[in-house]
Amino acid sequence: IMLHSTLALSLLLIAVSSNLAMAIKKEKRAPQTLSRGWGDDITWVQTYEEGLYQAKKSNKPLMVIHHLEDCQYCQALKKAFAENEEIQEMAQNNFVMLNLMHETTDKNLSPDGQYVPRIMFVDPSLTVRADITGRYSNRLYTYEPQDMPFLIENMKKALRLIQTEL
After folding, report:
1. Looking at residues 34-52, what average pLDDT do you find?
2. Which Gene3D superfamilies does the record cross-reference, listed alphabetically (predicted)?
3. Which residue, 160, 111, 103, is CA-closest to 140?
4. Where in the chain are the domains?
5. Contact 64/108 with Cβ under 8 angstroms?
């Protein structure tokens, strides 16, 4: 009986510790608050400066998403962005990704004003691509949830430009 209860206790301890390990592992993943809901599997940089550095180092374009928590258009765009598998996959593999809830000091990132949401691309030579725009002439870098195919095209364009220009 003693052996039996020791065995049962050991199994219980193993079960508890593996659950604990899983809980800790989940906790460890928590710093992914940088995604702010735009895609938890994407590695996000924290600052614009870090984004520029990583873009140059990795030779990948930097994608900058300006948004605000209390903006319904941003929330709708975020949902469409996070649910689009093609966008998520490209963002994970081919881009340096940054989402910001404040403006940067780089005026090149607000060529037509400081509105949200807006998505801009910076190539590895650190040039802000004012030539990669959305569908709207009044807010050149804004996208709406139904514009995901258009954003995908622009992501591909950003990748193509690197191959042809740099």
Report:
1. 96
2. Glutaredoxin
3. 111
4. 48-159
5. no
Q: What is the pLDDT of residues 133-162, one digit of tens each?
A: 999 999 999 999 999 999 999 999 999 998
Question: Rounded distance, CA 75 to CA 27, Å?
Answer: 25
The CB density around residue 74, as the number of other CB atoms within 10 Å, is: 24
Half-sphere exposure of 137 (CA within 13 A, CB side): 0
The pair of structure tokens assigned to 138 is: 């009044």
Under the banding of pLDDT at 50, 70 and 90, the label for residue 4 is: low
Read off the pTM. 0.80
17 residue type, one letter: S
HEC secondary structure over 90-123: HHHHHCEEEEECCCCCCHHHCCCCCCCCEEEEEC
Alpha carbons 151 and 141: distance in angstroms, whole number: 10
